[in-house]
Prior knowledge:
Blueprint: H1 8-15, E1 36-43, E2 48-56, E3 59-61, E4 67-71, E5 78-86, E6 92-100, E7 107-108, E8 116-117, H2 126-129, E9 132-133, E10 151-159, E11 180-187, E12 194-198, E13 205-209, E14 218-221, H3 232-239, E15 243-247, E16 261-263, H4 265-275, E17 285-290, H5 294-303, E18 307-313, E19 323-326, E20 329-332, E21 341-343, E22 349-352, E23 379-385, H6 395-404, E24 412-417, E25 434-438, H7 441-447, E26 451-455, H8 461-485, H9 488-494
Parallel strand pairs: 3-11, 14-15, 14-17, 16-19, 17-18, 18-23, 22-26, 23-24
Antiparallel strand pairs: 1-2, 2-4, 4-7, 5-6, 5-10, 6-8, 6-9, 10-11, 12-13, 13-15, 19-20, 21-22, 25-26
Amino acid sequence: MCYDIVLLTKLARCETMLGQLGPILSGVVRTSMRASHVTRRLSNSTQASQVSLEISPRVCLYDVPSRITVKGLQPKAPVTLKASLISTKQREFVSNAHYIADDKGEVNVSRDVSVGGSYKGVLPMGLLTTLKPAPGVFKYARVLKNDVAPETVQVSLYQGHVPVEAHFMKNESSRPEAITTCHMERHVMGPGVRRIPVRKGRLRGTLFLPSGPGPFPGVLDTFGRAGGLVEIRAALLASRGIAALSLALFDFEDLPTHLERVELEYFEEAVDYLLDQPGVIPDRCGFVSVCLSSYLALACGAWMDRVKAVTTIGGFTFFYESHLTYKNREYFGEFFDGSQVIFKEGEVEASISKNVMGGRLDPEHPLTVPVEEADDDTYFLALGGDRDVWHLHRGLEVLEGRLTSRGRSDKIRTILYPGVGHLLEVPYTPLCGFIWQKFSPTMMKNIGRKGGAVNNGSDQPHLYSLAQVQHWSEIQNFIMHHVRDKSLWYQNHIHR
């Protein structure tokens, strides 16, 4: 069985394009073309130089790359660039990169090689994607942005190759002094995007509508085991011309704390609400899902006649954990065997057995979502990383096998990203080292713990960054084509 694998060589070619993506991506915040240009005197034993640190664009959307350059250094001078972010939970995340100025006394992060620090090699947005908990911060903390407020990242320049730990020495007078500092401002909502809290009936979520009258393709957007309401992807989709309803599933306001019972009519109500909005194409929509919510998205695509484009990211392909009902259907989802989640005594880190999926990776397993029951004009995009520690990437082959055996191979596109773990998030968000899993009550009994830290699986920042950019483009193109371009209502609208 063959499925579309994004090869290392293909991704490597993309790496050279990262520094050129700025002018390609549209819809940037109006202030995005402002560059911050700060100068300060740098003295050494021989002369004083005008040193400048420039970030352009300094203010922009999350998915837009910025160019970071330093000028006015001594030729071949060793320097360190350090980035710092304070999260919404007031935790600090840091990264750094060691550079050697060229013959002109310049450093261009989009072009030059980092010789040490948080990453090595050429990684244009590496200072953002390699942000990790600062010394003294909870080791398993994650930069999980669940609001739409802009984030500020401080970028500082230092003489020499300075380790991160030096900035956190107890004796403050021993800490290195920055030559100059600049701030990046990253937004998730573009100009004119409208944010509308949704509390209608039992629906709990936030609707993001693009600027202008439309018509716009619409999608439901859900996340996984983290629970709550995560708005970043929906806000960015709206910034790119797609109406997106970020939908909470559990552990939010008056919703249940766990996903033990699911009435799929909840999603039917969400589809009705989304497609009734003025400016949204009314005859079809998409669904973007991650991890735990993916089997719900697949079920909606299989059984709801207006859900026409389903994307799963590192997702479940079988009914899992919950008792799911929909009209005359009923499924009791399976749980992982607790013995396959292995903790060392006294530790919170867990390793996952390769056998954790058991027989659930059989395309004909009775709990595999029957995606073949979808309408003939419904399509699926399944994305995953080949280092997914939960081994959910193997579900790509399950979905493709199930549809192919029924003569419907043209209804699915699968992409497996090399060097990528369980999570795959919007471009230029930090690579998550660990995922803190909150177990359901049944899993708590099976494992004897409320939760644990599982390694994400991604350990190659270059490959992860490239996959972020590529998968984001895939999702948008998939939605535009199957929700907008294939809509009869939209075709009639534009040919009036």
